[in-house]
Design brief:
Layout: E1 4-7, E2 12-15, E3 23-28, H1 39-57, E4 61-66, H2 73-82, H3 86-103, H4 119-131, E5 135-137, E6 143-145, H5 162-170, E7 185-190, E8 205-207, H6 211-220, E9 225-231, H7 235-250, E10 256-262, E11 265-267, E12 270-271, H8 282-288, H9 291-299, E13 307-309, H10 311-337, H11 347-363, H12 368-389, H13 393-410, H14 414-417, H15 429-444, H16 448-460, E14 463-468, E15 471-476
Parallel strand pairs: 3-4, 3-9, 9-10, 11-13
Antiparallel strand pairs: 1-2, 5-6, 6-7, 7-8, 11-12, 14-15
Helix pairs in contact: 2-3, 6-7, 9-10, 10-12, 10-13, 11-12, 11-13, 15-16
The chain binds one RNA strand of 76 nucleotides through α1, α5, β9, α7 and β12.
RNA sequence: GCCGAGGUGACAGAGUGGUUAAUGUGACCGCCUGCAGAGCGGUUUUCCGGGAGUUCGAAUCUUCCCCUCGGCACCA
């Protein structure tokens, strides 16, 4: 079985073969922190989180680097608007971002560098590009990448021609006076006294937008990456600029062997944007939906497709999620009463099949949607076996172990898998069991009024109980 | 204008040549149940944007057309 990935560079599915054995250097463009992160960021980082986790599952040795851009015009402008220091603003929203990712169960990158910690390296790389004749400083202290030096590589990722670019962008974009060529992009930008800046050979200034990723991917990853990822919107110009400057600097091609891009997230069929007023931050959505449901919702569509967010769709995802979550609850409950003697009832075979189909789906460009579909089939069979036959402890454990095994990749069933987790609030397990016991006595006496009253009481305390054939199961909601 | 993604049942969404087109949600019926919940079984009548072509065979390949969304030097 071979892992296949879609490569934006070739627009094809390719067998995944890292540059060096099983080692994978992976870089994903992080956010520019000028505001709370929105759902689009969640989509992107959850997608790459699962990709990264799956590579680990397939025994690749992954180094995952993802930056935080903490100096940028958008940050400066926003800081000006609300009258705070730009660095204060960026550090506040960088923390907000990390908090959001933690809540969404996104594994932290192995290295998460800040742009402002790498100014000397950035200046060094720009100097190198100037030395190689690929960039030029101007009178006012800007440095541009000289696109005419690499016309052959332009469009390698975006698949556009120089003519096409000139035509499309010319009328819309204000052309800086000091550029030699309209398509040149800025590496270093001179700062006015009231803007953040660092001393450089070209005067006080700050990095341009594309250079930081080239510097940090090389420093923490490798001169050549195996996977470079980000949203589709970054293909042009950001990733293309990275390719030009990185390859120009190192002389090595390709800068990254595979380029992977996640699709957009729309809201009620429209692109998220401030002007439409349909901009949802991760924090806003987390107020209404649990993080695992948001993750599940995102993984329920292939990462390259557009995904449409709406309250209705998330609620639907929540109900779908419950099916599998309930299966896990059913398993744990069944385990309590299960016999020790061998009575597998085909569960081991089901697990084996489920694992095979999980790998088959994920190997095909990380098809989480298909993987989840297979999981539903598996869950249904497991439920059927449990209620029909009463399998033994060992085989039930095997199923639970399988769920935790794949949850190392999906990261959605953490809450259900947690065993004996101490809950700070609400009644203790003993109190709950005692109330359930009381209720069982009432039920035996057919005192339904009292039984229902106890059930209501428990419900008020956040305990949901269900009567099953072999006893009462309960869980905290 | 250039470049890209897409159009599959009520909704969501897999499937890139081969038996009755996954899976989930919703709806309905049944089993189970004191009720509720969960679960299981079943149903949801021609679901593959349109035309032409290739093929023994097309959702899948070719071509033309229609429509939607996005990128084009701000963006995950």
């Amino acid at each position: 079985m071979v892992l296949r990935v879609y490569n934006t560079l070739t627009r094809q599915m390719e067998d995944f073969v890292p540059l060096h054995d099983m080692k994978v250097n992976m870089y994903v463009c992080g956010p520019t922190v000028y505001d709370h992160c929105h759902l689009g960021h969640a989509r992107s980082y959850i997608s790459f989180d699962v990709i990264r986790r799956y590579l680990g599952y397939r025994k690749y040795d992954v180094r995952y680097v993802s930056n935080i851009t903490d100096v940028d015009d958008k940050i400066i402008n926003r800081a000006r608007e609300i009258g705070v220091d730009p660095f204060e603003l960026s550090s506040r929203f960088a923390l907000s971002f990390i908090e959001d990712m933690d809540r969404l169960n996104v594994v932290r990158p192995d290295i998460q560098p800040l742009v402002t910690d790498h100014i000397p390296e950035i200046i060094g790389m720009i100097e190198g590009l100037i030395d190689r004749g690929l960039a030029y400083p101007t009178q006012v202290g800007n440095v541009y990448y000289d696109l005419t030096s690499s016309l052959g590589r332009v469009g390698i990722l975006s698949h556009q021609t120089v003519e096409g670019l000139l035509e499309g962008s010319g009328s819309r974009v204000e052309v800086e006076e000091d550029k030699n060529y309209r398509l040149d992009f800025v590496l270093w930008k001179s700062s006015s006294p009231d803007e953040p800046g660092w001393e450089s050979p070209w005067g006080r200034g700050r990095p341009g937008w594309h250079i930081e990723c080239s510097v940090m991917s090389r420093k923490y990853g490798s001169q050549q990456l195996d996977i470079h990822g980000g949203g589709v919107d970054l293909i042009f110009p950001h990733h293309e600029a990275e390719i030009l400057q990185s390859e120009g600097y190192t002389g090595l091609q390709p800068f990254s062997k595979y380029w992977m891009h996640n699709g957009f997230l729309t809201i009620d069929q429209e692109k998220m944007s401030k002007s439409l007023g349909n901009f949802f931050t991760i924090k806003q959505v987390l107020e209404e939906f649990p993080p695992e449901v948001i993750r599940f919702f995102i993984l329920n569509t292939h990462y390259r497709n557009t995904i449409d967010f709406s309250e209705k769709h998330l609620e639907e995802a929540g109900r779908a999620y419950e099916r599998i979550a309930n299966t896990i609850v059913n398993l744990k409950f069944a385990l309590k009463e299960a016999p020790d003697k061998d009575s597998d009832h085909g569960l081991s075979e089901q697990v084996r099949q489920a694992r095979d189909s999980f790998i088959t789906s994920m190997d095909e460009d990380f098809n989480t949607r298909e993987a989840l579909a297979n999981l539903f089939v598996f869950a249904r069979r497991v439920n059927a076996i449990i209620s029909a036959n009463g399998p033994d402890k060992k085989s039930l454990r095997k199923v639970l172990d399988f769920f935790s095994e794949i949850d190392e990749v999906l990261g959605v069933f953490r809450k259900e898998m947690a065993v004996g987790e101490k809950i700070a609030e609400g009644p203790s397990d003993e109190e709950i069991e005692e109330l359930i016991h009381q209720r069982e006595k009432s039920r035996k006496a057919k005192d339904w009024a009292r039984a229902d009253a106890i059930r209501d009481e428990l419900q008020d305390k956040g305990i949901f109980i269900e009567d099953g054939k072999e006893g009462v199961r309960w869980r905290r909601t």
